[in-house]
Design brief:
It is a single chain. The chain is 35% helix and 15% strand. With 211 residues, the chain is α/β, with parallel strands linked by helices. The chain has 2 domains: 3-46 and 101-210, Ribosomal protein L4/L1 (Ribosomal Protein L4, Chain: A, 3-Layer(aba) Sandwich); 48-97, no CATH class. β1 and β2 form a beta hairpin. The chain is elongated and about 95 Å long. 19% of the residues are buried.
Length: 211
């Protein structure tokens, strides 16, 4: 642990400096791994409900439209063929699962790389102290002051033991996302400009790597 970061109070005053693990916040970029974790995350969320009817599923008569020969027209079968209006679709999409497997160690490393990017670009802000707010207006004042640090448009706040009142207070704020530490993932870190973490979350990351 040879990296340092400042800890601030909710009044944005520096309270102390702590050590953080370089195995979490000191990794080099890996664009191919970041691409894979983003793709894996998005494919997991994809519904995969697109569906078209094939020839056997379309309703209609199975009678041949006109004789095969001597009509002067092109050859055709019944009205359910793909070439006809209202006919079935040939090779169309069917409901399926778009997700794919990704190694757990790769997912963990991708999360640490995304955290390292935030630290390296001074987009990681650590706070300490209880956050007791119940109103959206109170939460807005806090996050607006944090946004002014680097003019960030989207802020992700990762909290260790988040209270339901805090979640409710932040739910209606545009550009502010609150996430429980247990649900921390690379995609959410990458999607937001500024990452705010409480000191307890940072310590938990350090402790896990020491085991």
């Amino acid at each position: 642990m040879n990296l340092k970061i400042n800890v601030h109070s909710w009044n944005l005053e520096k309270t102390e400096e702590i050590s953080i693990s370089d195995a979490v916040f000191g990794l080099e970029d890996n664009s191919s791994l970041i691409y894979e974790i983003v793709r894996w995350s998005l494919m997991k969320k994809r519904q995969g409900t697109a569906c078209t009817k094939g020839v056997s599923e379309v309703s209609g008569s199975t009678k041949k439209k006109h004789p095969q020969k001597e009509s002067g027209k092109s050859r055709i079968g019944d009205g359910r063929e793909p070439g006809n209006r209202g006919g079935g679709v040939s090779g169309g999409p069917k409901p399926r699962d778009h997700s794919f497997k990704m190694n757990k160690k790769q997912r963990m490393k991708a999360k640490f790389i995304s955290l390292s990017q935030k630290y390296r670009n001074n987009l990681l802000f650590v706070v300490d102290g209880d956050l007791s707010v119940k109103k959206t207006s109170e939460m807005k004042k806090i996050f607006e002051s944090l946004k002014e640090i680097n003019k960030s448009k989207k802020v992700l706040f990762v909290y260790s033991d988040i209270d339901s009142s805090v979640k409710n207070a932040a739910s209606n704020l545009v550009g502010f996302n609150v996430l429980d530490f247990k649900g921390l993932n690379a995609l959410d870190v990458l999607k937001n400009d500024l990452l705010i973490m409480d000191k307890k979350s940072i310590n938990t990351l350090n402790e896990r790597l020491e085991k």
